[in-house]
Amino acid sequence: MKFFILLVFVFGTLSVLINGMPPISKDYNTHCRCLQVESRIIPPDSLMSIKLVPQGPHCPETEVIAGLTSGEKICLNPRSAWVKKLVQFILSKQLHHQGGAPPKNQA
């Protein structure tokens, strides 16, 4: 009987190792965050933050989540022309900002 329990335990462990386990962290999400997306243009003074969530195993689409000054968070349609321009602007601004910073010394 002990041999049977040990055998079941070993096969269970092998099954988990072979199939893999998803990473465990607070940021790991197994599904898309955006169930509905907005295509309407949001005035720039209403935008407080923009978060880009790249596509991955959790979601086949890139997600653009806007934080509004009202505290509300909405998902923007990444296929809308104005959202594409906004994303390009943010990415170019980040790239320019990173390019202007002096390189960090590595120890």
UniProtKB/TrEMBL annotation:
This is Interleukin-8-like. The lineage of its organism: Eukaryota, Metazoa, Chordata, Craniata, Vertebrata. It comes from the Eukaryota. Keywords: Cytokine, Secreted, Signal. It comes from Sphaeramia orbicularis. Belongs to the intercrine alpha (chemokine CxC) family. Its main location: secreted. Residues 1-20 form the signal peptide. It is found in: Secreted.
